[in-house]
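User: I'm writing a tutorial on reading structure tokens. Could you give me a worked example: one chain, its sequence, then its tokens, then a sentence or two explaining what the tokens reveal?
Assistant: Sure. Here is the example chain.
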Amino acid sequence: ASDGKICVELSDFETVAAVTKAVRENRYAHRLVNGQGQAEFSIFWNDAETGLDLKCRVDWFAAIPVDIKTTNDPSPEEYARTCVKYGYHRKAAHYLAGIELFNDQPTPMVHLAVGTKAPHVVAAYEIDDRDGDNRSLGYRQWRQTLTDLARCYETGDWREPHEKQITSLRLPGWAFSQELYQVGD
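And here are its predicted structure tokens:
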């Protein structure tokens, strides 16, 4: 009966149903994904600076494109950490580069962060990754990644910089404060 189909655990299916319901019941999320638009919209283009062929698939392509993310904690503080940890700011820069091929002006992109645990909180975020000079961290890191990738294709050398040399590694500041909390003999 399941030939050619993907089977999921009942608990996973129930979580997906609850998350979907939470998105539909959140007024901002509902407005963003229930208007004119297209789900899973694929974009293909060539990057003029590196010559690389690029692609992305936008979860919901509309006047305001949407990227839907599940997360343990969709609160602003924790989701900001999640964005940095998983590079969502770089992904947004990549997606926006493709999306801008369809728009005459810069387009905002919204992340719908949906909690994976009941009550499945839904938050809508426009990621602001600009520094004090109004430069996008995600865009800078994305451009550097494309430059590095193009260099790897050109040279055939796919090693990381730390694989090519002996690197001095400085321990993070928090490591030094740990000894303050050690219990002595």
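What the tokens reveal: The helical segments are 10-25, 27-33, 76-86, 88-99, 137-155, 173-177. The chain is about 40% helix and 20% strand.
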